[in-house]
TrEMBL record:
<keyword id="KW-0597">Phosphoprotein</keyword>
<feature type="domain" description="HTH luxR-type">
    <location>
        <begin position="152"/>
        <end position="217"/>
    </location>
</feature>
<dbReference type="Pfam" id="PF00196">
    <property type="entry name" value="GerE"/>
</dbReference>
<keyword id="KW-0805">Transcription regulation</keyword>
<dbReference type="InterPro" id="IPR000792">
    <property type="entry name" value="Tscrpt_reg_LuxR_C"/>
</dbReference>
<feature type="domain" description="Response regulatory">
    <location>
        <begin position="3"/>
        <end position="119"/>
    </location>
</feature>
<dbReference type="InterPro" id="IPR016032">
    <property type="entry name" value="Sig_transdc_resp-reg_C-effctor"/>
</dbReference>
<dbReference type="InterPro" id="IPR011006">
    <property type="entry name" value="CheY-like_superfamily"/>
</dbReference>
<keyword id="KW-0804">Transcription</keyword>
<keyword id="KW-0238">DNA-binding</keyword>
<feature type="modified residue" description="4-aspartylphosphate">
    <location>
        <position position="54"/>
    </location>
</feature>
<dbReference type="InterPro" id="IPR039420">
    <property type="entry name" value="WalR-like"/>
</dbReference>
<protein>
    <submittedName>
        <fullName>Response regulator transcription factor</fullName>
    </submittedName>
</protein>
<dbReference type="InterPro" id="IPR058245">
    <property type="entry name" value="NreC/VraR/RcsB-like_REC"/>
</dbReference>
<dbReference type="InterPro" id="IPR001789">
    <property type="entry name" value="Sig_transdc_resp-reg_receiver"/>
</dbReference>
<dbReference type="Pfam" id="PF00072">
    <property type="entry name" value="Response_reg"/>
</dbReference>
């Protein structure tokens, strides 16, 4: 059973998230919070597998709450809920330890897919979030999107062929176990590749590596739902 905490300051949004997650018999919502401080305390108490946090909440926002949660409960994966106007917040959250990013207006199935992926230790960027992040980086960077893609491809060129293959699967939201099964290797080998990928790209977490994969255009097709 995947135990989940929901944090959003809007009761109707929390109810909607809970209703979507309830359609998966292997997911259980164990607690709800209306702000970041409450989310941190409930994570401390319940130790859920996944915390689903709205980015904008009163008091302690979702980004700061995610950073605290990663500090007190590193086994709890954080999924951030964003809107189309929060690109800067998404970029900040990438450095705060969040592993999943979903658009509130996205398909309900994406929420379940994201929660499952993060619970398994993977990074998950909804396709819309990935597109927004890449477009925002292109608009605020030194060149156009083509320049960003060229730079990303240059970054991944330093990786081995196998590491690039693992990065492509990582970018599509697969966990280490899923990647191991795709490549027919043991999970420990995949973990070693992921560590080498993070070091080679100079990023701190899987979500940031996934952004590079999307920028470079090497994301593998997502697996079909079970």
């Amino acid at each position: 059973m995947i135990r989940v905490l929901i944090a959003d300051d809007e009761p109707m949004v929390r109810a909607g998230i809970r209703a979507v997650l309830a359609t998966d018999p292997e997911i259980e919502v164990v607690a709800e919070a209306a702000d970041g401080h409450g989310a941190v305390e409930l994570v401390r108490r319940h130790r859920p597998a996944v915390a689903v946090l709205d980015i904008r909440m009163p008091g302690l926002n979702g980004i700061d709450a995610a950073a605290e949660i990663c500090g007190i409960a590193p086994a709890t994966g954080v999924v951030m809920l964003t809107t189309f106007g929060e690109d800067d917040y998404i970029l900040k959250a990438l450095g705060g330890g969040a592993a999943g990013f979903l658009i509130k207006s996205g398909e309900p199935e994406e929420l379940i897919t994201g929660v499952r992926a993060v619970a398994e230790g993977a990074a998950y960027l909804s396709p819309k979030v990935a597109a927004r992040v890449i477009a925002h980086l292109a608009a605020t960077g030194a060149g156009a999107l083509a320049g960003r893609r060229s730079a990303a491809r240059e970054r991944i060129s330093a990786l081995t062929a196998r590491e690039r293959e693992v990065l492509a699967f990582l970018g599509s939201g697969l966990s280490n176990g899923q990647i191991a099964r795709r490549l027919r290797v043991v999970e420990g080998t995949v973990k070693a590749h992921v560590s080498a990928i993070l070091a080679g790209l100079g990023v701190d977490n899987r979500a940031a590596a996934a952004v590079v994969a999307h920028e470079a255009g090497i994301v593998a097709p997502r697996p079909s739902p079970p």
